[in-house]
Amino acid sequence: ITRSGGGSSLGCEGSVLCHAVPCRAVLHPDIISTVEFNHTGELLATGDKGGRVVIFQREQESKNQPHRRGEYNVYSTFQSHEPEFDYLKSLEIEEKINKIRWLPQQNAAYFLLSTNDKTVKLWKVSERDKRPEGYNLKDEDGRLRDPSMITMLRVPVLRPMDLMVEATPRRVFANAHTYHINSISVNSDYETYMSADDLRINLWNFEITNQSFNIVDIKPANMEELTEVITAAEFHPHHCNTFVYSSSKGTIRLCDMRTSALCDRHAKFFEEPEDPSNRSFFSEIISSISDVKFSHSGRYIMTRDYLTVKVWDLNMENRPIETYQVHDYLRSKLCSLYENDCIFDKFECVWNGSDSVIMTGSYNNFFRMFDRNTKRDVTLEASRENSKPRAILKPRKVCVGGKRRKDEISVDSLDFSKKILHTAWHPSENIIAVAATNNLYIFQDKVN
Amino acid sequence: MFVRGLKRKCFDGEEDIEGTLAGIKAIPSYNLQRQSLLDMSLVKLQLCHMLVEPNLCRSVLIANTVRQIQEEMTQDGTWQMINTQSTGQASLDRLVSTDILCRSSREQAEGKHVPGYTTFNKDFEGDQAQDSSETMSAASSVQVPRNLQSNVWEMENPQENKGNFQKSLDQIFETLENKSPNSVEDLFSEVDNSYYDLDTMLTGMMSNSKMGHCDGLETFSSPTPTASNSNCKSDLNELDHIVEILVES
Q1: pTM value surpassing 0.80
Q2: Do A284 and B65 touch (CB under 8 A)?
């Protein structure tokens, strides 16, 4: 079993599919609402419902313990957003962090964007491991010295100190969204980013906080005519003029910012024709796309709707090239899931580093991985009971009807309060982070 | 999607209502399921978190579902069967005209004046207030408090469990909120004037409670449907019944 450095396709050797090993389980004080690796995978950020951001850093590998391939430990914790009150509308603004996106590292400090429903913030996370000592005008405790008592001058020197990680808000991008922000995406030019709410998408320059450009606006003149909202948006990984956004009607629009200032007219429109045999009153709701992600290559987009994950080729708009069933056994339960509101749960989806495997969450703390090459898939569970450190995760199976085998779980026993909405995949290695309510699990390949 | 074994009937007259009611009660038919889905959806739309803005995506999806159901029900001609679940309340069907409900239900779905929506569209709210005041002025002989609108939404408090009956009332309110002046005139064209005396009496009774807006209820619920039922006496009894329930809760 080899350690996979490039995120190779899943098989039985050296892959997360067969040999996922829990290496970390962290209990958060609040429900985790977003998880994101940075561009090197060295850092992992989580945001929670209480507005806090926790950043984990991967330990440098030591030669004496090669099998401990770098555990993730807490690096920094800070309060990103506070609850606010909109006095005009008499409504609370939740402090829950909806999304975190990292900027690529350009110097010693790390930068990330975090957003709640209304405000995006740029945070700088930097280390301090030295401090100046030997000031002339103040002593070591910081108390001012009496100038008349100073008899000689000295040059302050930097001396090592215990590592301190500080997070400072460098920019606050506020007052640009009437509706709730659901996505943020950093552009490949590293100078701009976009924020999307239910009806509008705005383009920002990182240096300018008091204005943004509106690039998409689907608000109808008469709100009574509103039938569709924006659910997710993302920039193309390489082409800084291209982005996509998904809708509650199951469509994806690709826009080119070079064509016009307001990108209301799409360059491409992706929609799968409806299957008339599967039509029900819930068809539209389950077709609503909860997440859209470009592949690392930029050739494909992946969308998640309630029951499936779909992969689309950017060059083919009329249907996806691949469709994966996440939990089709729920199709007959849609009415109950509508009643308890679970049908509105927004699951995210992620690509692995080589775009060969995709992953998404489900209920009962299950998450699913699909190998696009071998067409194999697996269901794993993220829970403390079932994961002992360094013990390989056992694949799980949901039994749909008839006889239930020993290790299977029946659909009616699934716990719908245990939902895995947020997952992340290391950019180059087979390391995944899975958020299960308050718990963050990090799994990696087992190395013999 | 249809339950096997149950023939769907086209409901074309009220004389069929009683018989088919019995039939429907016996088996959970497609119609009943659909009705239950509609009710559930309406409740979901009305349930809003007063402190935090409701989720717009969710509201839009539910509203679209309501619209789909109502469109289908209108095509079936089953829209008049909206209150089939409430057995003793079957007579309420006769309180509001079928035709008006059909029209307004579509308007209702599209222009749904739900508390959740008021937060994102101030313009919309302004228009609605205007519409309803036009409505009020059309019914010139009736004094309706100007804050009827806000009271209606206060009344739609999910904690007050008045069941289907409450929902029918709410639908009546909404029906009338979204009314165009023409249909309001239709509504009132056959109203017996003796009602207004009753209204004054009832208004006096209700003036203490928070539900003072039921002045509007008495007035608007009394109008008869198109031609079939103009027996005011029996409606009076029903009115008492309505008032009793409202006062108790």
Answers
A1: no
A2: yes
